[in-house]
Amino acid sequence: MGSVIAPVRDHLIEGSKTYHDITEDICRPTETMPKTMWLVALLLSVTVLTVGIIAILYTIWVGIGTWNLNRTIGWGWDITNFVWWIGIGHAGTLISAILLLFRQKWRTGVNRAAEAMTIFAVMCAGLFPLIHMGRIWLGFFIFPYPNTRGPLWVNFNSPLLWDVFAISTYLTVSLLFWYTGLVPDFATIRDRSKGIRKTIYNFLSFGWTGSAKHWQRWEALSLILAGLATPLVLSVHTIVSFDFATSVIPGWHTTIFPPYFVAGAVFSGFAMVLTLMLIVRKVLNLEDYITLNHVESMNKIIVLTGSIVGVAYLTELFISWYSGYVYEQSAFYNRAVGIYWWSYFGMMFCNVISPQMFWSKKLRRNVTFTFFMSIIINIGMWFERFVIIATTLARDYLPSSWSYYVPSLTEIGIYVGTFGLFFTLFLLFTRVAPVIAIAEVKAILKTSGDQYIKANAENIAAKAKAEAVEETAH
Amino acid sequence: MSDTKEVLFGLYDDEQDLLKAVEAANNKGLDIMDVYTPFPVHGLDHVMGLSESRLHQAGFVYGMLGTLTAFGFMTWVFTRDWPIIFGGKPYFSAPSFIPITFELTVLFAAIGMVVTFYVVSGLGPGITNRYLHPRITDDKFCVAFETAGKSDDELTGIRNFFGTTGASEVHQKEV
User: Fold this and answer.
1) Is the distance from CB of A7 to CB of A464 less than 8 angstroms?
2) pLDDT in tens, chain A (474 residues)
3) In a 10 Å sphere around its CB, with 0-12 CB exposed, 13-18 middle and 19+ buried, how is residue B63 labelled?
4) Does residue A82 sit at the B interface (CB-CB below 8 Å)?
5) Strand arrangement, sheet containing B141-146
6) Is A207 on the interface with B (CB under 8 A)?
7) Which range marks the domain in which residue A306 is found?
8) Could you tell me if residue A465 is inside a domain?
9) Of chain A residues 151-190, which have a CB less than 8 A from chain B?
10) Using the beta-carbon criterion (under 8 Å), do B48 and A183 form an inter-chain contact?
11) How far apart are CA A108 and CA A88, in angstroms?
């Protein structure tokens, strides 16, 4: 607990909270009956999820032929959605790991929910390659296990296999990181509850007591996991981009892909965190913990990563022209003004032009505008993946096999279904677990609570005044 | 839990009071059994004289294990067990082993450390540790002493210590 508080820092906790207030406020949603709105939302999500399940079962039953993929366009909405969800799944680890290493205190207000979002988004993402295998019941072939075919091993040189390792590692490490953070908070709920709830939370809290040695180890563990998760999160989208970059398709075969994909992933991930958190803070009355200062910090990251993505788009265009390589030039010409010009335009508008509005402080702190923008950005980032995948494949080497791709109803059904999965899991999460890291918020109360910041600013002002008086007296 | 012990503990309302109390206890030569807090209090491990956690060393070992497993296994598969030429590259194409080697390093280190953390701390699914006071996970900071082997004078000394250091509550409990 630092006694020194920088007076320039904005407060991150409002309403002059005490430690007990924090416990009460954050535990309340898990202890009260859900509102009708929540039930309606859950019902809607489950319905949408059912649509997705039907579409998936139909695909598995009939075969991949139910999708509108063809000889030229072998990857369509499936891989677009996969990359899109994986990208969204990057914000949680970025917030909890990279911002922990950088000692950004505003992380504590949003990290729990962002990590949950990450895990659910990665689950949605993982679904697509699994279904895309065609024979999902042979999915275990991707693991290098001693089999009866030789054993014939998987191809360790293939980026698609690297993806398997990257994404399963990412999901596992994110889960461990998230759950280790949850254990002390589950103990908090345990100690407040009775009956069956106590039994459940007693199990979930793993026997946590709050011993000083445990906290010390817990902090060491969090820090090292953050240190490990930081290169991990960068590696995941790097490897996803290798799926394209190591191929020999003009428009994919570019070295710029890894940083460009990572920046895009952070960009879309933060947009999704904002979409969710702006609803959560309102519905669960957590505006004191997820303040406008948090929203503004996230919007700053959005404008930064959005600009990086913009630079990447322009670099791509420039390099294709400057390379003097006609196939590359033609790929980019088709991408920008070809048959899918509308998706390129959508991508440029949503990802590069619209986030520039966040240079204005007023707009960065405007909740309605931020919410609107967060959705625009997610649409834009979906377009980016669609542009890269579908428009590149639609114009391949032989003009005779050029074609146009529109998703089938089944493909749309699966995509919509993943929203059902995502929101069902997230809605359940907000009822059973504290959506804000209770212990971590308490740990920054003395340095970021508004009452302390204010008192400190007054102290400093008074001191400065006293010194000034002393100066004149001399 | 078969071995119960009698514990005398005081609850403080603020972490600054707690830090002062722990320091005072050290100066008086009182042997603190443990300190319990609702969140990680910075500087507490230092005041209590806890040695630094060696989890990161364990993590390094697990990570190295992952590195060797991944790299060694892929090398064995592609040079010994079933050599196949991919894209005209040599059997032992180390650069393309890097991504999986990295992922397994992280995976082994993370799983290893998390398991080690729970095992050495005596925590885990299905484990119920008795706790001293329900508000320790809320807003109270607790300093606990074992009563076993202490004379009445010593216990009175501890109670006085709680009084002088500003504990808001003092309890005696068997855990």
Assistant:
1) no
2) 444 555 566 788 888 888 888 888 888 888 888 888 889 999 999 999 999 999 999 999 999 999 988 888 888 899 999 999 999 988 888 888 888 888 888 888 888 889 999 999 999 999 999 999 888 898 888 889 888 888 889 989 999 999 999 999 999 999 999 999 999 999 999 988 888 988 999 999 998 988 888 999 999 999 898 888 889 999 999 999 999 998 888 888 888 999 999 999 989 999 999 999 998 888 888 888 888 888 998 999 999 999 999 999 999 999 999 988 888 898 899 899 988 999 999 999 999 999 999 999 999 999 999 999 999 999 999 999 999 998 888 888 888 888 889 999 999 999 999 999 999 999 999 999 999 988 888 888 888 888 777 777 777 777 778 887 877 776
3) buried
4) no
5) B34-36, B141-146, B6-12, B169-174
6) yes
7) 19-136+154-460
8) no
9) 151-153, 155-157, 159, 161-162, 165-166, 169, 172-173, 176-177, 180, 183-184, 187-188, 190
10) no
11) 19
**Measured between alpha carbons, how far is residue B157 from residues A409, B146, B150, B163 in Å?**
78, 13, 10, 10
CATH number, residue A80 = 1.20.1630.10
Round to whole Å and give the CA distance between A155 and B99: 13
Given a contact cutoff of 8 angstroms between Cβ atoms, the answer to whether A410 and A68 are in contact is no
Q: Which CATH class is domain B6-52+129-174?
A: alpha beta
Report if residue A7 sits inside a domain. no
Residues A94 and A302 sit within 8 Å (Cβ to Cβ): no
Q: Which two tokens stand for residue A259?
A: 């940083």
Q: Is A208 in contact with B40 (Cβ distance < 8 A)?
A: no
DSSP lists the bridge partners of residue B146 as B7
Q: H-helix or E-strand containing B11?
A: strand B6-12
Domain with CATH 3.30.70 in chain B: 6-52+129-174
Pick from B57, B138, B141, B142 the residue to mutate for testing the A interface (most A CBs within 10 Å): B138
Q: What is the 8-class DSSP label of residue A211?
A: B
- Integer Cα distance of A67 and A58 in angstroms: 10
Would A3 be classed as within a structural domain?
Answer: no
With beta carbons under 8 A apart, name residues in chain A contacting B108. Answer: none
Examine residue A224 and state whether it is found in any structural domain, yes or no: yes
Q: What is the token pair recorded at A430?
A: 């907000």
Domain count, chain A: 1
